[in-house]
Amino acid sequence: MLALVRPDSWNFPLFLHVLGAGVLVGAVGATVIIATRAPALRRLLVRTIGFCVIPAWVLMRFAGQWIDSREDIPGDPAWLGVGFIVGDAGLVLLVVTALIAWWGLRRPERRWPVRAVAVISGLYLIALFVAMWAMTTKPD
Fold first, then answer.
1. Is 1 part of a structural domain of the chain?
2. Which pLDDT band, with edges at 50, 70 and 90, does 139 fall under?
3. Where does the pLDDT of residue 1 fall: very low under 50, low under 70, confident under 90, or very high at 90 and above?
């Protein structure tokens, strides 16, 4: 019901947040696919993380904070907490993933970095889907 009476000034930050989240899910999904299906494409893996995943996270997180500052949500709803946890913990996971992917690019004879990127990215993709479910259904 809140979405029906939302002021027009909230539309742009909400659009940017949803756009960033959509690109983030797609880029993390692409990272998982590249790491599992084509581990020889390590350079593409590092570029996907650096040029798609990290900027999408920045857009999603800062636009989410922008829309949160505009709205006056009473209390501390669980769906908002889930979004903040997945977003903030995601930065740590993404930085670790980027460092591991870069390490794998520098040491091509080792196979564990690509596997680690696939596992960490897969877990973060699941967390993103949980956050997406919480943000859309608002189960309070």
1. no
2. confident
3. very low
* pLDDT exceeds 80 at position 140: no
Contact indicator for 12, 105 with CB cutoff of 8 Å: no
List pLDDT tens digits, range 44-62.
999 999 999 999 999 999 9
State how many domains the chain has. 1
For the record, the structure tokens of 51 come out as: 């040029």
Q: Which long-range contacts (CB under 8 A, 24 or more apart) does 107-114 make?
A: 108/42, 111/39, 114/35, 114/39, 114/42, 114/45
Domain containing residue 72: 10-137
The alpha carbon of residue 33 and the mean position of all alpha carbons in its chain are separated, in whole angstroms, by 16
Looking at the domain assignment, is residue 4 inside a domain? no
Which residues of 17-65 form beta strands (DSSP E)? none
Residue 2 falls inside a structural domain: no
Give the whole-angstrom CA distance, residue 60 versus residue 55. Answer: 9
Q: Is residue 103 part of a domain?
A: yes
